[in-house]
Amino acid sequence: MTSSMEVEKIEEIKVLINHFESGPSLLHHPSMAFFRTYISDFSKAAYWNMVIQSMYDKLLDIAKGTLLHLCDDVIQQKVLQIKTRY
User: Fold this and answer.
1) Which residues does 66 contact at the CB level (< 8 Å), separation at least 6?
2) Which superkingdom, per the lineage (predicted)?
3) pLDDT tens, residue order, the chain (86 aa)
4) What's the confidence (pLDDT) of residue 13?
5) In the chain, how long is the greatest CA-to-CA distance?
6) Which residues contact 27 (CB under 8 A, 6 or more apart)?
7) Is-contact 32 41, C-beta < 8 A?
8) CA distances from 27 to 14, 36, 69 (A)
9) What are the Cα distances from residue 3, in Å, to 7, 9, 19, 27?
10) Which residue in 6, 60, 61, 76 is a FRET match for 20, CA 20 to 30 A apart?
11) Up-side HSE of residue 49: CA atoms within 13 Å toward CB?
12) What is the enclosing helix (H) or strand (E) of 2?
């Protein structure tokens, strides 16, 4: 359950994002350097997570029937069991 303060903050964030979408030049203001850094770092992390997952998926495709593939199956089953408990 979100508090009224959280709802207000979310609305403020929505307004800010709408400003950025309608006039991205606001992002170039020196006072927004922290936000550009945050977005850049967030994008890099998401990109590298995608790259790592893709490489891992390719390794699993290559390793079908090998110990790596079997270990991954066991781990995925254990994770699923834990998720269903909670």
Assistant:
1) none
2) Eukaryota
3) 567 778 888 899 899 888 888 888 888 889 989 988 888 888 888 888 888 888 888 877 776 767 777 777 788 888 888 877 76
4) 87
5) 55
6) 20, 35, 36
7) no
8) 15, 7, 45
9) 6, 10, 25, 29
10) 6
11) 6
12) none
**Which token pair is 71?**
């270990």
Report the alpha-carbon distance of residue 36 to residue 28 in Å, rounded. 8
Residue-by-residue DSSP string for 11-80: HHHHHHHHHHHH-GGGGGSGGGHHHHHHHHHHHHHHHHHHHHHHHHHHHHHHTTTSHHHHHHHHHHHHHH
Residue type, 10: I
- Rounded Cα distance between 23 and 9, Å, is 21
N-to-C CA span, the chain: 19
- CA distances to 4, 53, 77 from 73, rounded to whole Å, are 44, 16, 6
Query: Both tokens of residue 51?
Result: 């790259």
